[in-house]
Write a structure and sequence with these properties.
Length: 422
């Protein structure tokens, strides 16, 4: 039984920040126009934002805001303890900080609901759970002076995952440790969430000492073996993607459902270079064997959550040049920013935090061969862990119906292992 005061605090926090899900209007219209039938719970959940979902299911929820050194105002969601187990506040609880992937948000780790979603599994296992939101997504679209909605000035969007690692993560981590009074935490990063961890600890190696473990869920770094046709087709044009977008008046990608609908209608035909992306991200949730199709409206209400064009372009550079290195502006700008004509590679020998790397055999976005390359460059890899199911893919890490059985419960075991090594 959760103490009433916790529920009151949770509901009060949500009331102050009352919002609908990022794409609630879209999902409502989609269901009305299609005539599809879904349970009332799914429909209700599809209209709630992440804090609203957490509060609805009886978990304590806190909303925290931090400001980066370059002026971005970011939002974190905290579940300080469990609902059924470990359901009292304890300042000595170990901390689990979770960071989402490209085009995603903190919602990735709660949409599957109690008993299944990673955030709830960790809270019930005795962790103080913090969920980050990178600059530019639905929850972190604020800045001290820049306007994300301006069509005349895209300066808000002139960032890649380099800045997320170099500025957002330190702001999050320092705030969490100061708030809790602890000195270390676990870092769990899915896809780009793993990329940014590598960026942080290579550029600011002093942060390695603040991590009990790095749990990399398909951490994206090298992409020599990436076989997503869209990425392969766009990579040669990475140097014009961003400049073209700016000329058209936008710096964000897939943050607007109207744009997504237009994109789907014009570029998701079979044979298009975007077909793989459309199938996996925009239209194909109900085609996946290991997705619960009844939850499609809930997934679509939160994804995509927004990202900058430059984030996409930066991954394009990784593919084009077969190198995990900083963002390539142009020769002159590179000289000013980095002191060299070409951007430097991230020095992964400086990433000394204990690293546990998890991968799926059928992951197209982060091919297992590229994960092995990453592992060979990191100096403190505790283990590489292949998910047992042969068909486990990039999106199963967050949406797979068996993710708890094949990954999350084991993740708790590995985190406890890391704690025993301290």
């Amino acid at each position: 039984m959760v103490p009433k005061i916790v529920l009151l605090v949770a509901l009060a926090a949500v009331a102050v920040n009352a919002r609908r899900a990022p794409h609630a209007d879209y999902v409502e219209n989609l269901i009305k126009s299609s005539g599809a039938r879904f349970s009332s719970d799914i429909l209700e959940d599809s209209l709630l934002d992440a804090p609203g979902l957490i509060a609805k299911y009886g978990y304590p929820i806190e909303i925290h805001h931090v400001t980066t050194s370059d002026g971005y105002i970011l939002e974190m969601h905290r579940i300080p303890h469990g609902r059924d187990e470990h359901n009292t506040r304890d300042p000595s609880k170990p901390i689990a900080f979770i960071m989402h992937g490209l085009l995603s948000s903190s919602a990735d780790f709660i949409v599957k609901g109690p008993g299944n979603a990673l955030a709830y599994v960790l809270a019930e296992a005795g962790y103080d759970v913090w969920l980050g939101n990178a600059r530019g997504n639905f929850y972190s679209r604020n800045h001290l002076s820049l306007n994300p909605s301006s069509t005349f000035n895209q300066n808000f969007w002139k960032f890649s995952w380099d800045e997320i690692g170099n500025f957002d993560l330190p702001a999050f981590i320092d705030y969490i440790l100061e708030t809790t009074g602890q000195s270390k935490l676990h870092y769990i990063g899915h896809s780009q969430g793993g990329t940014t961890f590598l960026v942080l600890n290579s550029l600011r190696p002093e942060y390695n000492e603040k991590f009990i473990s790095f749990q990399g869920l398909a951490p994206a770094s090298f992409m020599n073996n990436n076989n997503v046709s869209m990425f392969q087709s766009l990579a040669p044009f990475e140097n014009v993607i961003e400049s073209t977008a700016y000329l058209l008046g936008f710096g964000e990608v897939f943050g607007d459902r109207e744009f997504i609908a237009w994109f789907k209608a014009n570029y998701c035909d079979e044979g298009s270079i975007f077909a793989d992306f459309c199938s996996s991200t925009i239209t194909g949730l109900n085609e996946r064997e290991f997705y619960n199709t009844t939850m499609v409206p809930l997934f679509l209400s939160h994804v995509p959550a927004g990202a900058s064009i430059r984030q996409i372009a930066h991954y394009g550079q990784v593919i084009r040049f077969e190198a995990f290195r900083r963002y390539n502006h142009n020769g002159l700008t590179n000289m000013i920013v980095y002191g060299s004509w070409n951007p430097p590679e991230y020095d992964l020998s400086k990433v000394t935090a204990p690293s546990y790397l998890h991968y799926g055999a059928s992951d197209k976005e982060v091919n297992y061969k590229d994960l092995h390359i990453l592992a060979s460059r990191l100096p403190n890899v505790i283990g590489k862990f292949r998910i047992e199911r042969e068909t486990f893919n990039h999106y199963d890490f967050i949406w797979g119906i068996d993710a708890r059985q094949v990954l999350y419960d084991k993740l708790v075991y590995y985190m406890k292992d890391a704690e025993s090594r301290q």
